[in-house]
């Protein structure tokens, strides 16, 4: 009895390891782009594009999320027809190839607007591939897991999205520190994209050795494989009702909590609070490292108490605490107010001159590094464009950049980002088990993939773009963009609280 139990555990361990590695690499591939949005925007668009370059780059990033539901339909159907293993092996190849090619695309200066168009096409391929990956991996693990432990075992798959982000941030910071900031902004940003091909190769080798899900193998042997998974999923009233409930009562709210706590937090710290490149990423890296084990904690807990209220509590806490958290971020980095009373020392001005507008005008930048009494430091940069034919500058602009925090404030920032990622673990840890338990085996891959990727890819993936866009409107404040994730999470909370059953280990998958 004991040896049989150990054999089952070892089999499950191998399944989780093989599935998780491939999924982690796909998330790594997908998130490099978002982590480097500012630098990539400078490479893909004209040098004078300004803030629109970031918004356009975030739009390209969001495009990959928008097509994820279509990938869920295409690959979900394949997964329900031919099996889980070969379908998410195919998605891995597509994702890895697209990421590698993004690292090879020339900049705007070389090929003009062909650069963002080519990157957009590859982002769409990435989105399609990811649309088929997650449902396959989660279903594959769940169909191997013993009854009463599905929340625990599938929660390991749930860690891969955050660990993929952690890996991408780690490689980005390491590469930048090795080759230097200037070289990284010029060509070094391509290295994390190109490295992904090695990781994908290892994952393909491992996945080739995997066996098909025993539940699907039994279904196929009995001749019960669905002839038309799409039709059964969306034309049968009972199944379609579950698809809608999964979307509006769970994955929609989970998606906005996920992307606010990780991606929008990073974007806000870097672009609104003007934190130093490394500083913002170290904060996120520490928060991710500390919070990641809680995916397994909440996934396992959901086996005992059910999935519903763990997920909904995560949404509710985000609704209540997002604005106070981000208000603190703003107040703590408001150097214009702080330096009036705390300015301690100022460095000698650093002057840079470059030609703009086809060489007709000169761009003069004067940077001064200032340090406050509390330990905070930042660069104050004054830029002005001086035409060759007149003496007065066209425009003078003062910006703040590269803010570094005093140690006590730095720790508070880590704690607040950790709290946001803890909410991510609450909503995301149990959701794979919740979704696979909603649908019968013959249509599970298709049925669970669509609401997951609409909730995450559309509602969640659009958080950085919509929040940044809303905050850029005249009359808005830096916190205005938060109303989007707060509103979506609130709607999902109400629907989930009223209509979702508290599913847990009492549910036996067929």
Automatic annotation (TrEMBL):
Keyword line: Cell membrane, Membrane, Transmembrane, Transmembrane helix, Transport
PROSITE patterns xrefs: MFS (PS50850), SUGAR_TRANSPORT_2 (PS00217)
Protein name: MFS transporter
InterPro entries per UniProt: MFS_dom, MFS_sugar_transport-like, MFS_trans_sf, Sugar_transporter_CS
Major facilitator superfamily (MFS) profile domain location: 15-504
PANTHER family: MAJOR FACILITATOR SUPERFAMILY TRANSPORTER, SHIKIMATE TRANSPORTER
GO CC annotation terms, alphabetical: plasma membrane
Gene3D superfamilies registered for this protein in UniProt: MFS general substrate transporter like domains
Predominant location: membrane
MF (Gene Ontology): transmembrane transporter activity
Bilayer-spanning residue ranges: 27-45, 51-74, 86-105, 111-131, 152-175, 187-206, 242-261, 281-302, 309-329, 410-436, 457-476, 482-500
Membrane topology of this protein: Multi-pass membrane protein
Compartment(s) of residence: Cell membrane
